[in-house]
Amino acid sequence: MQARPFDGAGLGLRRSLMGPLAELEPGEVDFLEVAPENWIGVGGRLGRAFGALAERQPVLLHGLSLDIGGFAPLDTGLLAKVRDFKRTHRCPIYTEHLSYCAADGHLYDLLPIPFTEEAVRHIAARVHQVQDLLGERIALENASYYAAPAQQMSEAEFIRAVLEESDCGLLLDVNNIYVNSINHRYDASEFLAALPGERAVCIHVAGHYVEAEDLRVDSHGAAVIDPVWDLLAEAYRLFGVLPTLVERDFNIPPLPVLLAEVARVRAIQREQLAGAHARAARMAGARA
What we know:
By secondary structure, this protein is an alpha/beta fold. The chain has one domain (9-287): Divalent-metal-dependent TIM barrel enzymes (TIM Barrel, Alpha-Beta Barrel). Helices cover 43% and strands 17% of the residues. Strands 1-2-3-4-7-8-9-12 form an 8-stranded parallel β-barrel. It has a two-stranded antiparallel sheet with strand order 5-6. The chain is globular and about 50 Å long.
């Protein structure tokens, strides 16, 4: 079954939002995103409700437990279930985190991978295995991290090398860029420009927790702040207007509050598209 196309502004689906989302008018949210691990095998009332939502709009899959940077054998059983789930619900894409999350058992956290050539080769081999099993490309998300062990290259160089060696896509998380820029003291705009934007397939925006002036925690439990919105607009200017999802994992407010953030994504998208059209018109006039 062919996957659905997706575009516009989306929202992360959480179970507490199932009822309110079912009552929305078509088009208020362009797509949804779920962790497949939380929905594979779910039946009964919840399974039927999920199926109904998936019939109304595209549902993207954003995995939590693939452990792409780890050393244990890939969970091919999980991947087979993801492949079947994706086909059943015509999900457009499966993405994962550029991190590891297991060591003799699941660690329930997304931990940083050393920025080394050896790690690049290791991850690329695992991504190729995943893509061969799924029969399509995946995308990896630039992760937030709080330590940089055995760093031999910059974070941006590492991400570019992994994506090119793996021949996979980029899930661009602008909140993670902002969080890392504070925690590791680099310029967020320069970092964004150094990424392989031609591989970006979609974007995440989210909120975070201010632990201290020089420490941010990627919590997904707060509203998106203005510097992250500004970074989103900058990403559009650099790479074009891409499908963009608002993430909120806890402290989930009433749906209208989240829809206001979805609407802000759309407003920034419209503004950037209008600017791009105006620049194209000026260039065409200058050539005439």
